[in-house]
Amino acid sequence: MNRRLRLGMVGGGQGAFIGAVHRLAARLDDRYELVAAALSGDPGRAAASAAELRLPRSYSDYREMARQESARPDGIDVVAIVTPNHLHAPVATAFLEAGIHVICDKPLALTLAEGEALAALAKRQQRLFAVTHTYSGYPMVRHARALVAAGELGELRYVQVEYLQDWLAEPLEASGNRQAAWRTDPARSGQAGCLGDIGTHAWQLAAFVSGQLPETLSAELHTFVPGRRVDDHVQVWMRYSNGARGALVASQVASGEENRLVLRIYGSRASLVFSQEEPNQLWFTPLAGQAQRLTRGRSLSPAATHATRVPAGHPEGYLEAFAQLYTDAALRIHAMQAGVPPPTETDDLPCVGEGVNGMRFIEAVLDSHRAGGAWIPL
Amino acid sequence: MNRRLRLGMVGGGQGAFIGAVHRLAARLDDRYELVAAALSGDPGRAAASAAELRLPRSYSDYREMARQESARPDGIDVVAIVTPNHLHAPVATAFLEAGIHVICDKPLALTLAEGEALAALAKRQQRLFAVTHTYSGYPMVRHARALVAAGELGELRYVQVEYLQDWLAEPLEASGNRQAAWRTDPARSGQAGCLGDIGTHAWQLAAFVSGQLPETLSAELHTFVPGRRVDDHVQVWMRYSNGARGALVASQVASGEENRLVLRIYGSRASLVFSQEEPNQLWFTPLAGQAQRLTRGRSLSPAATHATRVPAGHPEGYLEAFAQLYTDAALRIHAMQAGVPPPTETDDLPCVGEGVNGMRFIEAVLDSHRAGGAWIPL
Amino acid sequence: MNRRLRLGMVGGGQGAFIGAVHRLAARLDDRYELVAAALSGDPGRAAASAAELRLPRSYSDYREMARQESARPDGIDVVAIVTPNHLHAPVATAFLEAGIHVICDKPLALTLAEGEALAALAKRQQRLFAVTHTYSGYPMVRHARALVAAGELGELRYVQVEYLQDWLAEPLEASGNRQAAWRTDPARSGQAGCLGDIGTHAWQLAAFVSGQLPETLSAELHTFVPGRRVDDHVQVWMRYSNGARGALVASQVASGEENRLVLRIYGSRASLVFSQEEPNQLWFTPLAGQAQRLTRGRSLSPAATHATRVPAGHPEGYLEAFAQLYTDAALRIHAMQAGVPPPTETDDLPCVGEGVNGMRFIEAVLDSHRAGGAWIPL
Amino acid sequence: MNRRLRLGMVGGGQGAFIGAVHRLAARLDDRYELVAAALSGDPGRAAASAAELRLPRSYSDYREMARQESARPDGIDVVAIVTPNHLHAPVATAFLEAGIHVICDKPLALTLAEGEALAALAKRQQRLFAVTHTYSGYPMVRHARALVAAGELGELRYVQVEYLQDWLAEPLEASGNRQAAWRTDPARSGQAGCLGDIGTHAWQLAAFVSGQLPETLSAELHTFVPGRRVDDHVQVWMRYSNGARGALVASQVASGEENRLVLRIYGSRASLVFSQEEPNQLWFTPLAGQAQRLTRGRSLSPAATHATRVPAGHPEGYLEAFAQLYTDAALRIHAMQAGVPPPTETDDLPCVGEGVNGMRFIEAVLDSHRAGGAWIPL
């Protein structure tokens, strides 16, 4: 087995949410060692957070971190960026320019232009730029993608994806919740609220499994909670090149829902249904036929097998899916360091190109919404 | 118990589908006796069909039937209209003019104007005009409506209704299937294909439970099967007066789906989910809370209790829901015949007004579709 | 279509439960006309109940009814017996002796000896004796039986059947509930409480689908509710001739359960699971394979098709299953009256032989329980 | 945060199964560092396995390992024992005698006497002896236990636990499968096959949640696969001190089942159902009431909260449950090292006492089986 990669992190200090998830994910498959971080821009908080995590090297300035780490012989191989959205681009730029691989949370950036610049930079620097679209890490999502790619669904007809939560159903940002505060602040989150936070996940999941991007979309945003400065509800229609139709809805005000991300894909020969809250199974139903419940561990596509750790009937979950992205990233980085092509089993790792697609989606939705739902090409 | 009402039927001869369902439904609660019918416009088929059903009186001309039955001392009290759509209005008109109550399948008519004329005629004649929106007969649908009416969901936020089937995923109309043939023939089905056939059910269910009609809608139709002359896929967005949003999809080309009619209603305080394929249960989930599985027989709203026959755990289904409409109609007709107000427990019976709403929906969707998805007021 | 059979009923007057279910079931498929009944042994109640049902002929003495009906040219063809258990045998005897076919509720009788005498009498009189083991009427139960018979499961290994309710979790019989009163009164219900009431259903379902009776059983009964005079909880182990094992549990004190009758059959090649509360589906899973959700309407065994009325996705339920037994009985009676062999599609109708098996089960369980769980041959 | 504990491992080399699971579990919450192991008794395999895991210190003799590690200043704090069953007792003895804490897989030992000796030794040495009954680590299992302890179910009535798999439905041990080989070899697995492998999990889960052990049991074992030397199917009845009943079944030949561990507990006031394959939810249903689906992340007992990492709707699974045991063990060891009482939130960690209960269960089942199902006190 290869050595553990040296991992750095920017963001994710005390009071943060997704940073801890990244750390769990990086740890699970034992391919990383977290050795350095700028957990907060506030020096006190950064130091306290680092101590709590027993980190050897702590920074409060990510530029300084990029500089110093790239200069050390034992500097980090790769940095995980888990800051609020507005910092994704500057932080990623700093590390890429320092020659350090990047694993970045989504959405990729604040604007499409920013995103495209990152993609160009990553290419120029020949560095990995993974984007943590977590749900791509589920074995049954990968199996779904493999089934579509193998033509099992026939011609695409209808894609329905919904992502419903209720955690922002009330004005949480007004009551001191840090997560809610930055996610509803356009300066830190971007112009897209729910759209950027979970709409991009739904979009990516549909594209990842269907293997297609729509040609055009029509969208409307809505804000249900009075005083909120970003959207908390998104509806999108899509049209695909072959005439297939799609519908996407994302909402953070759907009372009672925890994290309902459901994808349904209908083809001319069969359909697939995946529900994130029950990720160990995938439903496959032929036209005029009967549903088959495909389960993780008994679905033998190489893609699904590659992403599974324990036998069928022993559920894996969200952290395992997240860990899979980290594992794929590690396999890619080792290959790049060795100067060999990336292993084919890492083909399912979402990278900066998918992040750019997400930004394109955000901008198209915003454009369509402003134009009263006009159909916008992608 | 009141005497059995004398029931007539127009349509529903050999090879038909929904006529047999109406007969089962009329029989279940023992409030009707089928005594006369014009089962087909073809005299031979009408007679053969009537003999098979052991019917005392058979006609092949519905006008003749209306005339003769209204003249007999033991003539029918009420007629069930189960013809293809284009005959709903002329048949209903003939019987209403003869002073006979009507139970009519949906969609109500070919056009909104026709539908409105029927509503006016029923009012003028002081006759019942029930429309068989079957799904309104389910106890848990009625319980859902009662919960919304009681304010349990808070303010309406998002209504999602989908009705997906796969039976028309291939060009069945080209292979001699009689059901497919008339349903895809604009002359008999009207301009709305899937839209009229199941879209109206989805629309009615959402309105029935939410207690609201949207103010405006935006829609697109699509035809997936080459050569088909009507739509087989419908997508609609809705906006409600309080700003609530809605999304409706109906498709008859959704591979693998049998009869997936699912309604999700999200309010500011709680949500409801009903799935027609599992009609003995209803999910109720408070904001930030945990789902409750409400079951038929243990849900004690008067509306649900009125519509249930056997104890909890003994499933009732589609025919029982259909029978409930017949029972409610019988209770109404007896009240009308007795000159007393209709019993309050029949308030949930869909009548011609809801049929007119369905026609209004169809026309608005057609208008919006032709206008490239423009928002159309209802 | 054949003429409607003239149906009589004994039991089922005001305040009764299962009588109304039999009437709904007899009506659904339009093969019967209820024309005479002894709805109660109390003349006043019998008359009032008959009037409510608009019955032409009412009796209060079932012997008198058997005598008179057999003497009339338009007398009943068949009688439905829906009394408490202790009357099953005397009533059935009276009608069989009068040459009238019988449809009887379960358990068949109070003792095995009584049951065997009924079977002998029915054979001697050459009359139909159907026993309403309702769950045999479900299409997916019949499909399950067909799959087992076709060898799809391989060799039988393990049969698990459970029937759990909570309606007797408290001493309902002490609070005036008539259903609870007779069902917990050994004089009317027999020595078997829960054992006879629902244990026999579980037993019959397992035998019906597996196509086998165990060779021996070991059992224990328990009474949880203080003061109750019969068992309210039953546990049974079974051994089959090929070494297969079985476990049966029936309980009427299982808090929260409505009518949980679940059958799981494991063979050397595959397994089947049927849950009565979701009767439109059946799960089939091959060894090391993935579950298939077989649905009513898309499962094309002749046995399932024969027992279905409406298309896939339009749920049928308990009353339809019950009606199927009445329909099968009608088909049999018409064949007997015509002197032709019974139609093969009625092979799934439970008759007096299965009723006798049920009595044999009851006595074996009682014997084993008294002997401290000793293994008792059947 | 405390320092990482230094972890050792015995067993779990190349080709093993559960060792890798222990390592994943130990890593997840970052409380351990694996620094030494005797991964195999074969020196070559031990070394190769250790290299693959980048282990600093590798042994092939566990006694040597215990000796050396206890002598080092940086020796291991705790050892994980993941060998076949027959080595549990000798290995645990060696490490306990060396003063090293133990985390041991189940079943605890080959015999009850061995198990009791281990318990006594752990007590004498004042060392932690955790037993990895994984399913106790699920948040919803802990929540269930808390609900029972709080009296929410009323008085216990019926406990039903089943654990069904199909992986040994065929003679896998004859085809070179190493897992199957040792698990069906009495010399390595003990006399209990399925009984020890998964029956003990079912037993422990029932006891853990119900808070009670039965007073007596009656059991039978069976071997379905010809030539197999241990049982592959177990059935047990239980009686509790208050008269409550229980039934346990465990089978490794149940075609189609992956890892179906389901616990149902019925009390006089309510019931609970937990299914291991859907571990993020727990069903709670009051007597005569409606089911509530309690979910991880929204079930706020301290016990459940302590065992959860990510928000509701983000599924956790088997590895997280396993990791929880490791975390609880770490919290206990730190407390012991600090000389303070164990934190109350670790009360749910299964320790050697539960392991002894498991051995008592195995011996009682074997005794009852040999005595033809006689009731055996525990």
Automatic annotation (TrEMBL), chains A, B, C, D:
This is Gfo/Idh/MocA family oxidoreductase. Residues 6-133 form the Gfo/Idh/MocA-like oxidoreductase N-terminal domain. The lineage of its organism: Bacteria, Pseudomonadati, Pseudomonadota, Gammaproteobacteria, Enterobacterales. GO terms for molecular function: nucleotide binding. It comes from the Bacteria. Signal peptide: none annotated. Residues 141-272 form the GFO/IDH/MocA-like oxidoreductase domain.
